[in-house]
Amino acid sequence: MALSKKTEKCVFTFESTADAMNMEKHCKECAIAGRIIPVPTSITAGCGLAWCADIIEKENILKFIEEKAIKYEGVYSVFLR
Amino acid sequence: MIKKVNALGLTCPLPVIETKKALEEIEKGTVEVLVDNEIAVQNLSKMADQLKMDHSFTKEEENVYKVEIIKGEGIEKEPAPVFEAISCAPAGKKVVVISDKNMGVGDEALGKVLMKGFIFALTQLDKVPDTIIFYNSGAFISIEGSESIEDLKKLEEAGTEILTCGTCLNHYGIAEKLAVGSVTNMYVIAETMMNAGSIVKP
Fold first, then answer.
1. Are B66 and B119 members of one domain?
2. What are B148-163's pLDDT values in tens digits?
3. CB contacts, 8 Å: A49 with chain B
4. What fold, for A7-80?
5. Which of A57, A60, A68, A75 is closest to A25 using CA atoms?
6. Are B106 and B81 found together in one domain?
């Protein structure tokens, strides 16, 4: 048995763990798609947390981030399982 | 000339060390090594590759392998260190043990996020663990409402056995809520851990 195929996701990075956890809190409250993950090594070799969702959610999430004035660093597209 | 090394019964990395000595003792020729396991064969092959020497092996009988390494002329006296590539790792099962709902000691909110992240990271590996065991407050991770359920289901689909301590589920009053894998007992936990090739505890 093998793990499922990787699919394209949008991954939002933050300047701090606190910012990432703040994002999680807001997204949970408003039922915004996605989840917190460790920052994929393809984005940076450093450590940290990121918000990950299906690529189709990208615009929604960007809008949400703007509405709530959430601090974030960047957005990437990454293939993950 | 042929030099023979009997490495039957020697534990890793001794077969490699003895073979290396034998190779150093001859100017040129063949070193014939008898070993009793495949990991030793792989390690000897790796060493021969690093030394740029021809090698081959045959399985003589159950648990007896003959590895031949041919030392040609012009091999440098002091070859590159070979022990980096030697792996004595047992081929046993990889077992992940999760004994707490948080990963590490410190800020609880961070500990939760880290544990979630760890389980997610397991799903991104090319080779998933053979077994994950949850006990004590780790049992909260395999029940309804846990944010790791989807990841654990993915791992289960990929072949990971997911076990949660029944005593723990009962103690916390969450036995009805188990959402992935199956309930286990201390005998299975002890046996699985004792038989593991390696145990990973985040």
1. no
2. 999 999 999 999 999 9
3. 113, 117
4. Alpha-Beta Plaits (3.30.70)
5. A68
6. no
